[in-house]
């Protein structure tokens, strides 16, 4: 009887030990600097072609800025606004416009959080089923135009994103 109890306890300890080690390391994907630069430059150019001076910020999956670009005549605060839009997209796991439309019930509270603003103009960057980060644009006359410029950048590099494993 004592042997069975000892074997059972050893088995339970082994399971607990293995479970404790199961989350010691994670493999994650994050956006690289080269892709972030290319996406940001393309979004600036997409808006520039329409006559809009904008800022673009690309953040990684943790909301850390990878690239920030402000076109020559874009207002200063467009950098801050685009970063805060991108942070919302990373936090919410959806576009900033979609979050704004679906979560009007908490929008006022969300706008009081440091580093987040609930405005249209940010899209997630997804590759191989993983969220790499987000791209956000600010400065065009409307979040829908900001978002369209971000989408043009994602569309241009869709094949590149598709082949990230």
Description:
The chain is an alpha+beta fold and 165 residues long. It has a single domain, classed as Beta-Lactamase (2-Layer Sandwich), CATH 3.30.450.150. 50% of the residues lie in helices and 16% in strands. It has seven helices and four strands; from the N terminus they run ααββαααββαα. It has a four-stranded antiparallel sheet with strand order 2-1-4-3. The longest helix is centred in the N-terminal third of the chain and has 20 residues. It starts with a helix and ends with a helix.
How does the SSE layout of this entry go?
Layout: H1 2-21, H2 33-49, E1 55-60, E2 65-70, H3 77-92, H4 96-102, H5 107-110, E3 122-127, E4 130-138, H6 143-156, H7 158-162
Antiparallel strand pairs: 1-2, 1-4, 3-4
List its traits.
165 residues, Beta-Lactamase, 4 strands, alpha+beta, 50% helix, four-stranded antiparallel β-sheet, 16% strand
**How many strand units?**
4
Q: What is the CATH superfamily label?
A: Haem-degrading domain
Radius of gyration: 21 Å
Enumerate the strands of the largest sheet in spatial order, edge to edge or round the barrel. Answer: 2-1-4-3
Biggest β-sheet strands, sense, barrel: 4 strands, antiparallel
Counting structural domains, the number is 1
Shape: globular
**How many separate helices?**
7
Structural class by secondary-structure content: alpha+beta
Please, what is the oligomeric state? Answer: single chain
CATH architecture: 2-Layer Sandwich
- Secondary structure: helix percent: 40-55%
Indicate the CATH topology.
Beta-Lactamase
Unreliable segments of 5+ consecutive residues:
none
Q: What CATH first level would be assigned? A: Alpha Beta
Mean pLDDT: 89
Percent in strands: 15-25%
């Amino acid at each position: 009887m004592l042997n069975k109890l000892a074997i059972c306890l050893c088995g339970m300890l082994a399971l607990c030990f293995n479970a404790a080690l199961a989350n010691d390391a994670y493999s994650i994907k994050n956006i690289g600097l080269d892709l972030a630069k290319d996406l940001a430059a393309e979004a600036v150019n997409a808006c520039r072609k329409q006559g809009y001076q904008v800022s673009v910020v690309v953040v990684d999956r943790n909301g850390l800025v990878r690239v920030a670009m402000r076109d020559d005549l874009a207002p200063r605060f467009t950098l801050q606004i685009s970063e805060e839009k991108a942070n919302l997209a990373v936090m919410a796991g959806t576009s900033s416009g979609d979050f704004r439309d679906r979560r009007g019930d908490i929008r006022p509270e969300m706008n009081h959080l440091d580093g987040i603003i609930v405005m249209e103009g940010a899209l997630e960057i997804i590759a191989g089923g993983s969220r790499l980060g987000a791209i956000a644009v600010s400065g065009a006359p409307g979040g829908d135009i900001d978002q369209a410029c971000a989408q043009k950048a994602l569309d241009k590099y869709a094949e590149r994103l598709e082949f990230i494993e």
